[in-house]
């Protein structure tokens, strides 16, 4: 509460605007919704987005593995904003749903009739001691940043054997499969270079299992076995010592030892590494956490929406989708492809004074790259219900045609159809 008041007070309003529909964030979700609203004839839509570039993040996995150029994942934002939709290049700093306005870093106050929050997810690097200062150095990298994904490849290429350590945090993250995709590619790379015997691949994950969907786990268990990967579940990365090349993990509350003695302090283990790929803990952007839109049941601060209609649970003129929303599905672009038409339909109904009728079923998918030239498509709904949608093709298998889909088909679909509001 105090933080919210402070955030409001520190902003000096220099000018005021008003839009019928304001979208915060022009990433995957924001631009897809803007394009669909534009196609449905909405005349007054504005996108509040600070970045001059737009990124196709799913390809960062391939950048980290040396088979995709980083430059090809970035495009200038301006031509991607649908003609007729206004781009306000600024940061949202505070949302006041009572007065229906958003304050920006540069002193704008933007009033709205309807708001769509699509500001993505915040990477909380600072929560891991010693990490920020060593990212991109000392064999420590992460595919979760545009500038670091090429570093992953640089370190992998220079890897001469030893311990290759991959981590996954306990918070929800974007693309739950990404921490392990790069691990499988690295293991395959070591095999192809003939250094598999001198390489120990370790997965230090705060999760309880390799994947929550039983049908996916069955395939991935075999992949883990094939590469002889050591899994350390219930392990949360808490510190990195770049000088000693050591990663410190703390047992999570779910670890059997912690469960059996919850009052004792949580054990820590140190794992030395030669190469380290980190996936940081993640949460909603701070300005959302500090706003009345945040879900009060979690400190992670997601925009609290009905998981089927994507309408805010307390403010009927507010909607949210994508990584920032509380919808309890795996946060992916694939999920947004299914969320966007539901949100747009419901928003238009609410604008006409009707109740929202369209429903999102939690669909998400994760293209799990398991080797150079192999991918396996995991598709599922809310509650981890396996839900393959491709006709004829058996997607519960690692396949070369699915690899081609990941490398060529999905980026084409993204830039040419999804961001244009066509799928
Ligand atoms: C390594 C990696 C691999 C992935 N692999 C896949 C995959 O294979 N398949 C898949 O479907 N998905 C994958 N994803 C996930 C996918 O990229 C995201 O789920 C998707 O981009 C989320 O869209 P979004 O619009 O919610 O957030 P984003 O696309 O991140 O957009 C959020 C936007 O909000 C803007 N913003 C932030 N703060 C503010 C502010 N204060 N004011 C205004 N705007 C703001 C940002 O600049 C950004 O443009 C992957 C992600 C990563 C990092």
UniProtKB/TrEMBL annotation:
GO biological process, one term: sulfide oxidation, using sulfide:quinone oxidoreductase
Residue span(s) of domain FAD/NAD(P)-binding: 20-142
Documented EC number(s): 1.8.2.3
TM region positions: 21-38
Cofactor: FAD
Coiled coil, from the record: none
Keyword Nucleus: no
Gene Ontology MF, one: sulfide:quinone oxidoreductase activity
Keywords assigned by UniProt, alphabetized: FAD, Flavoprotein, Membrane, Oxidoreductase, Quinone, Transit peptide, Transmembrane, Transmembrane helix
Pfam families the UniProt entry points to: Pyr_redox_2
Protein's recorded name: Sulfide dehydrogenase [flavocytochrome c] flavoprotein chain
Organism of this sequence: Calidithermus roseus
